[in-house]
Amino acid sequence: MGEYFDAVLNDRMLPLFNGTPAETESWLNKRPLWSMKTYQVCVGRTLAVMSIEAYLELRRFEKVLELVKQAMSDQDLTAGEITKQIVQIF
After folding, report:
1. Which of 69, 65, 55, 64 lies closest to 84 in space, CA to CA?
2. DSSP codes of every residue in the chain
3. Beta strands at 40-43 and 48-51: parallel, antiparallel or unpaired
4. What is the tens place of the pLDDT at every residue in 35-48?
5. Which residue from 59, 2, 64, 4 is spatially nearest to 28, judged by alpha carbons?
6. What is the pLDDT of residue 24?
7. What is the pTM of this model?
8. Distance (Å, rounded) from C-alpha 16 to C-alpha 43?
């Protein structure tokens, strides 16, 4: 499966930034959300268009899901270590 890119769109649906989900999240986190209230993100994997707040929430959820998957496959992690990593996401 290839790599997908997400795009930040302004209120006229013109792209302001596109990159991997991690790059897009980083770009968004470096800017004040109040200045982008009318902007949206198009998720390349699904082509869904959503608010920036919803996109950042989705990214947090995906990180937690990855940690849970890792914990289920890696028996060396303790519940405390997993909890600590999840808390750092939020």
Report:
1. 64
2. -PPP-EEEE-TTS-EEEEE-HHHHHHHHHTS-GGGGTT-EEEETTTTEEEEHHHHHHHHHHHHHHHHHHHHHH-TTS-HHHHHHHHHHH-
3. antiparallel
4. 888 999 999 999 99
5. 59
6. 96
7. 0.76
8. 14
